[in-house]
Amino acid sequence: MIAQKTAKGSRSEDRLLSFVLLIAITVTLTPVLRLFLEGVTAQDRFSLSLMRDVLGQDSTHRALWHSLTTAGLGTLVSVLIGSTFAFLVALTDLRAKAALVFCLMIPMMIPPQITALSWTQIMGPSSVLLKTIGMAPPLGAPQPLYSPAGIILLLGVQHSSIVFLTLRAGLRAIPQEVIEAARISGAKGLRVWWQIIVPLCLPSLAAGIAITFVTALGNFGIPAMLGIPAGYVTLPTLIYQKLAGLGTSVLAEVAVLAMLIGFVAICGILLQRFFQSQQRVHLVGSSSRPLAIALGRARLPIEALLWMIVAVILLLPMLGLLATSLVPAYGVPLRFDTVTLSSWYETLFRQPATSRAFFNSFSLAIGTAVVLIVICLPLAWLMERNPTRLGRLFDALVDLPYALPGVVLAIAMILLLINLPFTDATLYGTIWIIFLAYLARFLTVMFRPIQASIRQLDPAMNEAAQSVGASLWQRLRTIILPLSAPSAAAGTILVFLTAFNELTVSALLWSSGTETLGVMIFNLDDSGETVMASALAMTIVLVVMALMAAIQLSARNLPKGVVPWQT
User: Total structural domains in the chain?
Assistant: First the structure.
């Protein structure tokens, strides 16, 4: 009897796995396959002629070199900032660590176009903040951020949190017993750090570097807002300019460019996976206490230095953004007689596009998070219970849509959905194409935390429930969902915050009526409405910080693992 119930349950699981896996593959991998076919076909026949032509152009070589240069050097800046914070936060007895980590996470949650906009407000001859304190360069002086160095600096600041999170995870996995054994053997100070800690965390650091490089390579907001005015073109901005200028007639050409940047991104993914596979630190039990190397007299100056860095990369640009949003015109000094909220009122209450953008961004972010929970929860559990070749292939490729630059995924979605199969209908120009692109891009953000949580579950609980007759849905509802809820909640928070501020994908997919907040800020600044763009950007920053603060304040009452920047 029990064997019959088990066999029946296994068949139900197999059918559900096939169904959910088919949905996940369709959402995530079909657009990538369509992009590849576009780049290697001509007149419905296999051909590499277009690829040779596009890859042989000087503009392609120049954009590729610019992308590799800015992403590579930006990653070095991220490593310098992120690893410094990670080592000190994870290994020493610094005070107010939670506040420090929270502040360091904010730049990652703020859209890159807002990062670029805020930094331009504190530099250059038109800076309201510099004019107010009498330190603005003379009129006609160049904006120093409109340069490769400016792009590199902001890419480094924007993605330093990735290095921090990845490295800190590796450092927290180091058993306390290893450090204590080294100390007993006579190792002290920097020798413990250099000979014990660094070798153990190198795989985590290398994986963080690979992830950061891929993310910086696909960043669109910062190279667009700082590079286009300076004539400095990277691959994402080259794709954007070609598509914006010539429309869908250049889809085949931009597909080849998308494949080129996708190839570089895949190399980064493979490196990241290789370095993660080298991680060989295993916990032998719960440590008696976290690592907390005493800094002694150096603690106060180190804390002051770290908070000064936080102020420079977070507080100062936000002050510049706020100052610009409170003046009647860009470049006017901020004084009592020039302070005005007219740009805030105009942007938030008189511009119908702004209210649409808020509604669209909230709806897309919430809808994406909800749908991905429904897909990823049963998918991760069933893939763990019933490993198949197709499941292993999907697991190997599921990160691809997220690792690929957003403009690449956008091109793939246009190619796939501009003409729906067997109909004359199209999703191009509708909000549904953005929604489907979000599902493809952020599925792995939801899937990976849930998968990691489910892998830690004891299969005996599910088998016991199955042996007493619990149906598939009963086991999912009463066992799997409660136990994996913290990881699912962490994935939901990350998906919502990331999708709410997204620009790179929607920059190529939006149309009138489907604007998102990221698109609105980019368009306002591009059209010269810098003050209104600053007011809208400041509003978004306040919303994001309020959401993060509410989650942080609720952390004590939430299960461990819900707050993503604390896990």
Answer: 2
Burial category of 162 from C-beta neighbours within 10 Å (exposed 0-12, middle 13-18, buried 19 and up): buried
Rounded CA separation 104/253 (Å): 39
299, pLDDT greater than 70: yes
Residue of 402, 383, 492 lying closest to 441 (CA atoms) = 402
Residue 280 has pLDDT above 70, yes or no: no
Same domain, 29 and 78: no
Q: Does one domain contain both 308 and 436?
A: no
Q: For the range 301-306, what are the long-range contacts, defined as Cβ-Cβ under 8 Å and sequence gap of 24 or more?
A: 302/88, 302/92, 302/94, 303/94, 303/95, 303/96, 306/84, 306/85, 306/88, 306/94, 306/100
Region 250-265 average pLDDT: 81
- Asked whether the predicted pLDDT for residue 284 surpasses 60, the reply is no
pLDDT: which is higher, 328 or 109: 328
Lowest mean pLDDT among 19-23, 104-108, 173-177, 214-218: 173-177
Residue 157 CA: distances (Å) to CA of 208, 318, 430: 14, 14, 34
279, 375: one domain: no
Q: How far is CA 225 from each of CA 22, 114, 527, rounded to the nearest angstrom? A: 39, 10, 12
Same domain as 441, residue 417 = yes
If asked whether residues 70 and 218 sit together in one domain, one would say: yes
Structure tokens at 23: 């949905």
* Domain interval for residue 278: 48-110+148-315
